[in-house]
Design goal:
This protein is an all-alpha fold and 65 residues long. Helices cover 78% and strands 0% of the residues. It has two helices and no strands. It has helices at 6-28, 37-64. The protein is elongated, with a radius of gyration of 14 Å.
């Protein structure tokens, strides 16, 4: 992760933060009390997908160099 671009690092940090907030909200309901478990799962899965995409793109960029 040392060679990742700044934008990639920011995206990964945001994804990790959103995942943690979604998990916190699912247990406590502090952020949104009306969200269902399926919405939480969709939010977590989309952040994981975005993170995997960033990691894959950075690996491909490293291979080209």
């Amino acid at each position: 992760m040392k060679n990742y671009s700044i934008l990639s690092k920011i995206i990964l940090i945001i994804c990790l933060g959103v995942i943690m907030l979604a998990i916190l909200n699912s247990f406590t309901g502090i952020i949104n009390t009306t969200i269902q478990a399926s919405g939480t799962v969709i939010c977590i899965m989309s952040c994981i997908l975005a993170g995997n995409s960033v990691i894959t793109l950075e690996c491909e960029k490293r291979k080209k160099k």
